[in-house]
Specification:
globular; 4 helices; mainly alpha; 0% strand; 73 residues
Length: 73
């Protein structure tokens, strides 16, 4: 289970950096549908929308605080 969650967190980190599903898919070497599924799960787990700038800002802030990393664009 932990590995599966790491995959979702990796997807979120890359998506926050690119804001692009195709680019996220390419960087992670995952099928586009897998990335879309994982992004849907993130929305389900968090109750946030990845289409909302406010929610994206909050998610990015949480990821930065939790992992102490910069998310470059």
């Amino acid at each position: 289970m932990k590995r599966k969650n790491n995959g979702i967190l990796d997807t979120l980190k890359v998506y926050l950096a690119t804001r692009n599903v195709a680019e996220t898919s390419r960087i992670l070497d995952r099928h586009r549908q897998t990335v879309l599924y994982q992004l849907g799960k993130i929305e389900e787990y968090t109750g946030m929308s990845l289409k909302s700038y406010d929610d994206l800002y909050l998610l990015e802030t949480c990821i930065r605080l939790h992992f102490g990393l910069s998310i470059s664009r």
